[in-house]
Amino acid sequence: MTYYVTTPIYYVNSTPHIGHAYTTIAADILARHYRQRGEDTFFLTGVDEHASSVARVAAEQGLEPKDYADRILGAWQEVPRRVNATNDFFIRTSDDGHKAFVQDFLQRIYDAGDVYEGIYAGWYCIRCEAFKTEAELVDGACAIHETTPEWIEEQNWFFRLSAYQDRLLALYDQRPDFVVPSFRYNEARSFIAGGLQDFSISRAGQPWGVPIPWNPDQVAYVWADALVNYLSALTYARRGEDLRPRFWPAVRHLLGKDILRFHCVYWPALLLSAGYDVPHQLFVHGWLLLDDRKISKSLGNVIDPLDLVEVYGADAVRFWSIRSVSFGQDGSVSIESLHERYERELANDLGNLLSRTTAMIARYLDGDLPARPTSDSPVRDLLDGLSADVAKRFDDYDLTGALERIWEVVRGLNRVVEGQAPWKLAEDETRRDDLEQTLYDLADGLRAVAVALASFLPETSSRIQAALAGDPAESSWDEVAYGRTTARSGIVAASPLFPRIDSPTTAA
Ligand code: MSP
Fold first, then answer.
1. Which pLDDT score is estimated for 303?
2. Full-prediction pTM beyond 0.85?
3. How many CA atoms lie within 13 A of 329 on its CB side?
4. Do residues 96 and 225 share a domain?
5. Residue 324 lies in a domain
6. Pocket residues for ligand 1 (CB within 6 Å)?
7. Which residues are registered as beta bridge partners of 180?
8. How far is the CA of 306 from the centre of ligand 1 (A)?
9. What strand order describes the sheet that includes 288-290?
């Protein structure tokens, strides 16, 4: 199987916040997991540069949009790097390869007879980069950004979305898991069923963007340019190689609920028009909220992901963002909740388990662990079904559930420590077998947990494997099973995986 996963490409009109890092982290966890399962995987993220809001911010700073974008690019490239994401490519919509592809794509829908010229007039929210109907406004303002939209009236090129209503409905009926979770599928389907309006795919008033091939005085509407990145990247990410046959349409798009229509309605219609297959699946996630409001630059309530990573490390931030909000739902986050989970779950549940286990192996067995899997073991029972259960949850995008399923085992291993009390077994020479057995089981359980956690906590996973004198490279998914630990020597008491951090704070 092939597995191609994407994040939305982020607007560069301001700097990143935790809401952006969130999708990148989730996509990375999926990509790493499917790689572990041996799938041919490709992971794409990047930035969306041709927004009117980008041109506006650049002008405010006295810069050409491209110069502005070049300057802020580093801050965005830093996000995947700092959260330890393994993206295979980072796309910029100002890449020549992308721009050429967009022109070809638009020409295809033009040649298909789906484009006509018309006048558009309406309220436009520059932050959404979308026209708003009167019904969508709250007291005259955009409901998401709480800003007043602008009245725009211009001669544009329109895409005949209305002509795709039946084909989209047929697609949704044939593929009930085209959009997940199902309540998002229903939302998209009822939007389509409610009747589709043609939309403008060009802008006349500004030069920043990809020129329309048959009318170069106009540029592509930012969404007609941005969505195409998912396909264009495959044509030039690897020099001299066209990755489309390999990865299209095996794509899974991750996106926030605010951009559902563009992805679940416009994008498949544009693809059908241009003669491409529609995506395999779209997963729509919720928002991270702070004080019940979306974290967003325009609302001014941002948490800088890089500050958090600086203090708590990438793994802790990855852990917290997936664990504190059920993936797919909205949920509130706070730095206090990160701190609390760091101490209670990472440092205590997992960190102490490793410290205690390795310290006991060092002390009671001189660091030498004999290989002795057994049929009658509480750890065997704990690990039973783990691999299949976690894989199933991943297949359902239930990242939060997958992590909780692994954590059940972590808690179970802690109970084994307490229940077997190896320190008591060590006092009794005649119970040497039981002691070795228990310590083997704990080490093996930790090893299996480390492999299962590798996509969530990549650094921690390697450190656990190394502390158990194992090979971090042995992390293919079939290692998530009891009894794979071989005889090992030289195990010493491990240093804390998650050292104490004083107060819930970000770097000053
Ligand atoms: N550029 C468009 C996407 C084009 S994709 C072809 C865009 N960019 S964005 O930077 O505004 O948002 C990108 C993603 O970040 C969206 O999926 C959005 O939902 C997500 N998030 C932004 N703030 C968020 C939270 N507070 N919480 C979770 N995700 C949020 O839209």
1. 78
2. yes
3. 12
4. yes
5. no
6. 8-11, 19-20, 22-23, 48, 226-227, 229, 255-256, 258-259, 287-288, 294-296
7. 283
8. 17
9. 293-294, 288-290, 331-332
